[in-house]
Every structure is written in C-alpha cells, then in structure tokens.
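User: I need a structural model of DUF3500 domain-containing protein from Streptomyces neyagawaensis for a docking pre-check later this week. Nothing fancy, just the predicted structure tokens so I can convert them on my end. Input:
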Amino acid sequence: MTGDREGALPDTLEAGREKAAAAMAEAATAWLNSLSEDQLPLAAYDSPLHPDAEAERLRWFYTPTEHGGLAVREQNARQQGLAMRLVASGLSIAGYATVTTVMGLENVLDQLEGWRVHWGRQRGRDPGLYWLRIFGRPGDRVWAWRFGGHHISLNNLVVAGRVVSTTPCFIGADPATTELIGGTLRPLQGPEETARQLVRSLDTGQLQSALLHPSAVSDIVSGNRPRVEHGDTMMHMQDLWRGRFADPELDRLVDDIDRRAEAGSGYTENDHASVAITIPPKGISGRDLNNEQRHLLRRLVSLYTGRAPEFLADAYATHYASDTVLDAVHFGWAGSTDAGEPHYYRVQDPRVLIEYDNTQRYANHAHSVWRDLTSDFGLDVLAEHRAHIAHE
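Assistant: Understood. Predicted structure tokens for DUF3500 domain-containing protein:
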C-alpha cells in the first residue's frame, strides 16, 4: 500500500503495520507450538510463495463447506484459546466481537432449521467448524494466515514484518435478526441501517442514479473469486463450495436452495448483467451527494474498514476524510428500501469494493464483504516481492 499506487492509502502508519504483524506472529507461533504432530500438517502449509500453497491460499469460502486447515472442534481448550488469540490479532475489538457472535449463531440456525441440516457431517451447523491455517512460518519474510467457516472468511498477509493485506474480509449472519430476552440480536445492524438511511435520504434524481435494479440480487456479486474483474456477475451457490458432495442428495439440496433464491429475486441472466461489477463503478458518486449524505457514506465505509486492526482502520479513515477521495466513491442499491424487505447494496471506488445483501430466508440472512480491488490477498505486494528477488 504505497502512496504512488492509484487509490492507495497513505503510508503514514508503518509502525502500526509492524506492531500488528508482531502480534500476529507471536500469537501464531504460540498456537503452532501447542499442536501435536498429527495436528500440524492440517494447521501449517508451505510458504505462500510455493505455487501449491498460493493456490490453496486463494481458495476462500463463506458457505458451510470445508475451508481448509485445523478446525476449532479438533483442538483442546488451550489450543482453541490460542487460535482465537490469533483471530483477534487481525481484527478490531468490534470486529472480533462480531466474528465470534456469528460463530455462535450456528447454534441458533441449527434450532431454526429443526436440527435437520447435516451437510454430510455429524452436525451441519457447528460452531466448532471454523478452520485456521497458517501459510509459511510466522516471522518469515512472507507468511500468511486465514480463518474461516460458515459466514466468516478472514485473510491476512505479512511481508517483511508488515501487515500488507487483510482482505477479502467476509462476515455474514443467519439469522440476521433474532430475538433475545428483552432485546434483539443483529450482528450486521450497523452496515444495514446506515446504508438504508443513506438510500432513503436520496431525492428522486439521486435515487435514479443509485438504483442498480428494482429487486435485490440473491447473493453478493463478487462471490468467492480470488480476483474481482470488470463484468463479473453473481456466482451461483453450486460454485461456492469446495468440490461436490459424495451424496448426490446434498448436491440436489444446494441446487434447490439456489433455485429458490433465484425465484425469490426474480432475476434472469439479463438482470444479473445489470448488476454486474463494473470498472468504473455503477451507482451515485460521492460528488453528487450533499454534506449529510457524504457523512453517511463515510460512516458506511468505516463500518467495513473498521473491522481491521486500529492501525489500518485509522489509515482508511484518514484516506476517506479527503473530499477528493470521497468524490470517487460510488453507492448503488437494489431492492426495497423498506426494513425487512430483500435488498442489496454496493460501495466501490478505485480501491475498495463493499457488498451487502439481505435477501434469503425472507430477508433474514445477511452477507457482507470488504475487498481490495488492487490487492486482495496482497497479490500486488507479492508480485513486487517476486520481481525484486528475480533481480537480485
């Protein structure tokens, strides 16, 4: 993230990058040292510079499929604590609280589905089925780690003792809203309500510019692609899993869920093309918003970049404090603006892509993702690193 790249963040917080990398390395080392010889092959992978390791690192998921690594449920209590310490090192306090809440929602979802969904394993909705994997050795010049399971995917890369990438960063919630004793649990309330407040503040002309489609698409459009490209359309559910099931009935179940989601959205291939990701982006630009609306747009971006450790969240806050930078941010909406109705939105500029949908399960199943169009997985930094090595 150097200052001479288009859309890049100012390199004003190098000490923070190094501090976060040191915390990650310390936590990762402690976790690895706690593992048995049988656990280590699952937990630790080759250096990210190895082609096989790199291919695996770029495979990321947010469905309840096998994410790769050592599952939380396959660890003893001490190991679990050390694993979660590493997860926390890659998140803000609020980000960590949200991630662990989403993990706990698997118990609620299990009850909601009548404890019937199994996905070919002993328990289909399992808060222990979140996988942690480290690529390379903590403290190496290049190393990485990821943590993921149903509705969670965290991806981090460290180069030369600096955290250089924390995206893709996916957090979902199913159910998106559930009742508590005397209250309501909504892990993604902030990102949903802030966007709704923004779209409702638009006048007729502004809304016409912002509206991507009258109805909401049934999932995020970028899916789990390792890179986002111009013209990408929504990936269907069958393509968001690690391979196919041994039981054909489970494959049919995924097909059925996808068909029902598509029927609910009413989308055809032409509709999908209308909400395709484009460069330059669709939607209304920050320069066409008034001061109150611009404040809401900044707030919305911060609810995603604020998932990261403070040093990176602060860098993004400084970046988007610039009026010129905000002018280039586009906001797009699809679906109803009424609470409780299916909807989708997108925030995009030359660097950041944010997507949110709450459409499935009668608009009670939310997905949110923050991506870096210039360097998801730190691929641009790794390319520079390889080029430097080749010229040595």
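Before docking, keep this in mind: The longest strand covers residues 142-149.
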